[in-house]
């Protein structure tokens, strides 16, 4: 058993895991797995060339076989932020929107937001229905007046 290579692989595992924990991007964890395989080989006295081959092959196999599953697991349940989910939704103007006077508010999903018009020269009156087009900071950018449907048309 080559004691020096055991230390090399232990240090490699520690450094790779440290980088992984620091970045949380699932990039070096697979190489830490390959280093673990090489460490086991070194522990049983395997030659250096075999350790290196197992490190490379193990890392590649782990990367291609488990990364898609890990990404799917980590991505499960991710949703757009509350603010992002408002884009494309209808809102009711609760305070006249006038970009020149920096006034305006809308209510969407039960929450009141500061709002500005997509068109700087365009004012939008209270109680009109608008569409959320974008978000800039904490303001909703709204536009394209939507006329409420009337019955019988």
Describe the structure.
- The termini are far apart.
- Strands 1-2-3-5-4 form a five-stranded mixed β-barrel.
- The protein is rod-shaped and about 80 Å long.
- The chain is α+β, with helices and mostly antiparallel strands and 153 residues long.
- It has three helices and five strands; from the N terminus they run αααβββββ.
- The protein is 42% helix and 25% strand.
- The mean pLDDT is 85.
- It has two domains: 3-75, no CATH class; 84-146, Nucleic acid-binding proteins (OB fold (Dihydrolipoamide Acetyltransferase, E2P), Beta Barrel), CATH 2.40.50.140.
- Helix 1 (3-23) runs antiparallel to helix 2 and helix 2 packs antiparallel against helix 3 (48-75).
Shape: rod-shaped
* Class by SSE composition: alpha+beta
Number of strands: 5
Strand line-up in the sheet with most strands: 1-2-3-5-4
What characterizes the major β-sheet? 5 strands, mixed, barrel
Proportion of residues in helical segments: 40-55%
Low-confidence stretches: none
- H/E order of the elements? HHHEEEEE
The number of distinct helices, counting runs of at least 4 residues, comes to: 3
Rounded Rg: 29 Å
- Beta percentage is 15-25%
Tally the structural domains: 2
Q: For the terminal residues, how far apart are their CA atoms?
A: 87 Å
Mean pLDDT: 85
